[in-house]
Amino acid sequence: MIIPRKTLSLALLIIIFDSSAYKIGYFLNSLIHSHYKIAYSESMYYLTFQHVAMVVIATCASTIIGVSLGILATRSFGKNLLYPINLISSISQSFPPVAVLALAVSSVGFGIKPTVIALFIYGLFPIIQNTIAGIISIDKSIKEASIGMGMSEWDLLIKVELPLALTSILSGIRTTTTINVGVAAIGAVVGAGGLGALIISGLINENQFFIAYGTISVALLALLFDSIINNIEMFTTRSYKL
């Protein structure tokens, strides 16, 4: 699959943006407090890597669990679980990210772990809902025809339901990923690092430049993830049409 121009442009823009922040940041170190020198001891590349790692780990975990729960709720033996699963996923989304993060910190301590846990919990709802909606929306005549051809429930899921629901599932993953990129910035409050560290350090030292740089970096990263998943969605849709 050829990388689309928009995705490539966003990736290059982030690299250039990180590189310039690294150089300008060290140039301005003499103008800001010494506390900020310690907070900014890592380059933007490292902060971006931390941010991406947290988002990818949490989103992958949310995808595995969310899609599994969505499938379970649409099986003949799991229909009684549809309401509880919907309820639990709705509750997970209703809690503010900061509250979820605080609960996670009390359980596993400070650092990356509570942030990943908070992102995982917060990202379940869109994936579960879109998985259920995608499978349920499939025309019953298609399912009946597949069963009439001798397909088992497992064959029906793998060969018919999941391919047809893939667009909806990817849309949920896309929503979760975009949300997680923004929410991950809050993790800097509990020592998780990432691009949020740049924003927090800027707030502490009243340095508007780094607040803006961190905010724009998070926005560019969200656009990049959104573009990548959108490309995957279009590619898979086109493949099934062929």
Quick rundown:
Helix content is 80%, strand content 0%. It is mostly helical and 242 residues long.
Description of the molecule:
This protein is mainly α. It has one domain: MetI-like fold (Orthogonal Bundle), CATH 1.10.3720. It is 80% helix and 0% strand. It contains 10 helices and no strands. The protein has helices spanning 5-27, 34-39, 44-74, 82-94, 97-108, 112-136, 140-148, 153-183, 195-204, 208-241. The model is unreliable at 32-41 (pLDDT under 50). Keywords: Membrane, Transmembrane, Transmembrane helix, Transport. The chain crosses the membrane at residues 45-73, 85-110, 116-138, 181-204, 210-229. Residues 48-229 form the ABC transmembrane type-1 domain. It is found in: Cell membrane.
The topology string of helices and strands comes to HHHHHHHHHH
CATH topology: MetI-like fold
Count of alpha and pi helical runs: 10
What integer value in Å does the Rg equal? 21 Å
Oligomer: single chain
Domain module count = 1
- Average pLDDT score: 79
The CATH homologous superfamily is termed MetI-like
Beginning-to-end CA distance, first to last residue: 15 Å
